[in-house]
Design brief:
It is a single chain. By secondary structure, the protein is mostly helical. It has one domain: Ribosomal protein S20 (Methane Monooxygenase Hydroxylase, Chain G, domain 1), CATH 1.20.58.110. It contains three helices and no strands. The longest helix is centred in the first third of the chain and has 36 residues. It is elongated.
Amino acid sequence: MPNTRSAKRALRKSDTKRLNNRSTRSTLRTVIKKFREAAAGDDKELTESSFRIAVKKIDQAEAKGLIHQKTASRSKSRLSKLITK
């Protein structure tokens, strides 16, 4: 438990950030999962639209500092390999 007022504020702030990051990360994983399911199917239009959404969410997570730049690049590369198959 924090003892000082500033430590209490810092705890509230870190809790808020943790919840926001958790939500964003969960959304990112869901979008990637939906893309993989679409890529396994036959609908080319659905696959391409879900790919664009997934790339956008990855870029947003990278911009917020939620994931590292190289992790984002690697994820996008792997997803683009799936779309070409």
